[in-house]
Design goal:
Blueprint: H1 11-19, E1 29-30, E2 39-40, E3 76-77, H2 79-86, E4 87-92, E5 102-103, E6 112-113, E7 124-129, E8 134-143, H3 144-150, H4 154-194, E9 200-202, H5 203-211, H6 217-220, H7 224-241, E10 262-267, H8 268-278, H9 282-288, E11 293-296, H10 308-311, E12 314-317, E13 325-327, E14 330-336, E15 340-354, E16 359-372, E17 378-382
Parallel strand pairs: 1-12, 2-8, 3-15, 9-17, 10-11
Antiparallel strand pairs: 4-7, 5-6, 8-16, 10-14, 12-13, 14-17, 15-16
Helix pairs in contact: 1-4, 7-8, 7-9
């Protein structure tokens, strides 16, 4: 089942608060509807209360606004790529059969050619539509007269206005980044909810059982032996995903993932630990040299201190999940590039002047959406003691 995006509720606001560390930890996010409606970037009052920090005359201005460079992960696609993702045709291979090209019909030893046209097996074809698109809108109101009278010269006034628009741009980038994260988190939740045991690997439990150890989550992250085991298993899974099978997707589809189509996302704290303890290790080098290797500081929320418990946790609800999925200790997500995709495009802006109120209304719009394909390979790696 695909995850269809139609409209936004509170997901963006909630995930932005999580990402900025304004909550105590990870809060459950319902990603069923996950494309933003119109939303004010800041709470502005018109006229005298519009900018509380403005006095009547500003002689000199220092604008403290920096451009935010969001981390665009591999799931971000352009319009054509996303269109191809959400409209896929699947081919199911037929089973092999005996080939009766030459058959012995009786016991006299004479060979007779059988009919070459009695083939019954055919290739099954199915088409599925994934995902959807919605509109993300931002609008701000700028009272023209108040701003004009607040500055002594035109250049200072224009710097101030540019700062407003740069703030809007940064908000777009940041919220886009968080929406991408929620798409990936929903894909992981789908694996944890309905995937096979091969798709959801508790590496710490495996290691403790295999080697009769009693490592905790904290001690595992400083254990060279465990980190070597974890890196080895992740690499082994990547190799296995390159072979045709149904093992690594919860759609039961015969497929494989070549290394150039493999996305390896590791939690930064785990990746840093492997950097420190396994820098010269072959398994570590193989992971970091993959073409789509990415470090992720946190999946859903940084919490207030970037603690591992917060950064490694997801709490996702969705109509297509059997139950809400809450899982901590996630250190890696390895998936086919076709497993999850996001689209942000067709961005446009508009502006209109209201002469009665002497305000300028500025708006930004873009079409956005994401989808998850359960027929593509995906594996979640986590560490937990229970």
């Amino acid at each position: 089942m695909a995850y269809i995006v139609s409209q936004i509720k509170n997901i963006i606001n909630d995930s932005v608060k999580d990402a900025l560390g304004k909550t105590n930890g990870v809060t459950q996010v319902d990603t069923t509807d996950v494309v933003s409606m119109g939303k004010a970037i800041a709470q502005y009052n018109l006229y005298e209360g519009f900018f509380g920090a403005l006095v009547n005359r500003i002689v000199r201005t220092v604008i403290f606004v920096r451009t935010y460079e969001g981390s665009n992960r591999s799931v971000l696609r352009d319009e054509h790529e996303y269109g191809a993702f959400v409209q896929k045709v699947y081919y199911t291979m037929p089973n092999a059969v005996d080939n009766p090209t030459w058959d012995i019909p009786d016991g006299n030893g004479d060979y007779k050619q059988a009919s070459p046209y009695d083939v019954e097996g055919t290739v099954s074809i199915s088409a599925l539509i994934y995902g959807g698109k919605g509109t993300w809108s931002i609008e701000i109101v700028r009272p023209v007269k108040q701003i004009k009278t607040a500055f002594m010269d035109e250049s200072s006034m224009m710097s101030f206005i540019d700062g407003i628009y740069l703030t809007v741009e940064n908000a777009f980038k940041f919220e886009e980044e968080r929406l991408v994260a929620q798409a990936v988190n929903t894909a992981m939740a789908s694996v944890l909810d309905g995937g096979s045991s091969a798709q959801k690997r508790n590496l710490l439990d495996e290691y403790n059982t295999l080697y009769s150890q009693s490592l905790t989550v904290d001690t595992a992250l400083v254990s060279a032996d465990f980190l070597k085991y974890a890196s080895k298993e992740i690499n082994r899974t990547i190799e296995n995903m390159g072979k045709m099978s149904t093992i690594y997707n919860n759609g039961g589809y015969n497929t494989f993932t070549s290394k150039d189509k493999m996305v390896v996302e590791l939690l930064s704290e785990f990746a840093t630990a492997t950097d420190m303890y396994l820098q010269s290790d072959t398994f570590h080098d193989e992971l970091t040299k993959l073409p789509n290797f990415e470090r992720v500081p946190f999946w859903q929320s940084s919490g207030q201190t970037f603690a591992f418990d917060d950064c490694s946790k997801i709490d996702i609800d969705h109509d297509d999940l059997t139950n809400a999925v809450e899982q901590g200790g996630i250190i890696g997500f390895v998936h086919d590039i076709e497993n999850v995709a996001c689209y942000f495009g067709n961005r446009r802006s508009w502006e209109i002047f209201n002469p009665r109120s002497e305000v300028m209304v500025h708006g930004e719009k873009a079409e956005k959406g994401y989808a998850v394909d359960n027929n593509a390979n995906a594996v979640v790696f986590y560490i937990a003691t229970t």
